[in-house]
Amino acid sequence: MPPGPATITANSSNRFALDYAAAASRFASLGYPIIDVHSHIHGPGAARMYAEVARLFGVGLTYSMTPLREVDAVAEALEGRIRFIAMPDFMAPDRREAHGAGFLRTIEGFHARGARIVKFWAAPRGIDLGAQAGDPDLLRLDAPARIEAMHLASSLGMTFMTHVADPDTWFATRYADRARYGSKRSHYDPLERLIERFPRPWIAAHLGGWPEDLEFLDGLLGRHRSLHLDCSACKWMVRELGRHGRDEVVDFLRRWQGRILFGSDIVTSDEHLRAGENKNEMAAKSSSSDEAWDLYASRYWAYRTMLETDHDGESPIADPDLAMVDPVRFTPMDGPRLRGLSLPPDLLRSLYHDAAVSLIGEDPATLALTARPAATPPPVPPPVPPPVPPT
After folding, report:
1. Does residue 377 fall inside a structural domain?
2. Does position 373 have pLDDT exceeding 50, yes or no?
3. What CATH number is given to the structural domain containing 269?
4. Residue 212: closest CA among 266, 176, 249, 187
């Protein structure tokens, strides 16, 4: 349940103590369900809370990177309004096995439960995770074990999702060691080779990892007709899209209409629902059910405000990246400006709904959703990529 108005207090997801539940009712009725193609739903308690948040904000279907062992419980909590994205077991004690032969078994397990998307996470910090396991190249996008997994996923007719880069703010700070992490541009070289090697539909998360540079994304999309982008990672998108002029962002979305999908990157956890010491960075984002509600609801509030309205004001979500780059001007509790784009209705519908239906082939408005997909549903044929717009 959402916090009552009398109990709402300011926190890092709600700097201005907004009533997100009341605010959800003030958005215009869309007439179609939003499809969120990028989330991480964990924990049955948190999943039930997320389900209510999603319903209030008009989200009819969620695609989630949920650990395979939690799939059944999360599907039940969402009453079938969820589909799963195959991913390795990042918590496995033997990391090399989990990202090697274990990942092959995991892909098959997810596919048997109806998953038709597989995630190949290759963020620069994967170098550190691999080094901890004794192989800095373990999570490289074109590592031998990844190639083997791609062959399997391709044979199963799956769509590929990937995360290949992180914010410019991180390359200016966390990844300043170029000898270790390389340049941001260098992380796209294996992606471009693999898109051509594996002619499957691809989704590059977080606007391809470079919302700071729409011109680069134009070139990337122009070179690869099978490539799509999702707009997940709320704080990153609000901060960087707000730095572009509205016309520039709308023109970009119009130019690639049908190949840009909506995603939130919401992460839920039962650890968010309670206080505790020694939490990891993600679990520490909330210490009560009221804060967890704000954590999940704030992301959909920010997206809908940015995409649908002409709002211009500080984001209610704290963005520590500002202080990471400029600690003199900002504190970790400061937020960037959230500038509304007021997208035209047809462009908004494409982003929220139609692009995902075209790519993935399932429309929550017309299909009966079941709590547990059949073990071997009929394969979805790959979509025909839309034409490349003139450059």
Report:
1. no
2. no
3. 3.20.20.140
4. 249
Report how far residue 180's alpha carbon sits from residue 185's, in angstroms, rounded to the nearest whole number: 14
Does residue 384 register a pLDDT over 90?
no
Q: For residue 81, how many other CB atoms are within 10 A of its CB?
A: 18
Q: In the block, which residue shows the tokens 């079941």? A: 370
Please give the average per-residue pLDDT across 43-56, as a whole number. Answer: 96
- Strand 312-314 to 337-339 pairing: antiparallel
pTM of the entire structure?
0.91
Tokens of residue 200, six digits: 């499957």
Whether 7 is covered by a domain: the verdict is: no
Residue (of 302, 341, 219, 209) closest to 15 by Cα position: 302
- List Cβ neighbours of 111 (8 Å cut-off, separation of 6 or more): 86, 156, 158
16, part of any domain: no
CB 117 within 8 Å of CB 158: yes
340: tokens are 């509304």
Coil, strand, or helix at residue 292?
helix
Segment 187-215, tens digit of pLDDT: 999 999 999 999 999 999 999 999 999 99
| Contact predicate 238/302, CB 8 Å | yes
* pLDDT tens per residue, range 319-342: 999 999 999 999 999 999 999 999
Domain count, the chain: 1
The range of the structural domain enclosing residue 217 comes to: 35-360
Does 119 fall in a domain? yes
Give the whole-angstrom CA distance, residue 323 versus residue 52.
33
Cβ of 192: how many Cβ atoms within 10 Å?
14
Give residue for tokens 């809908």.
304
Joined tokens for residue 228? 């799509």
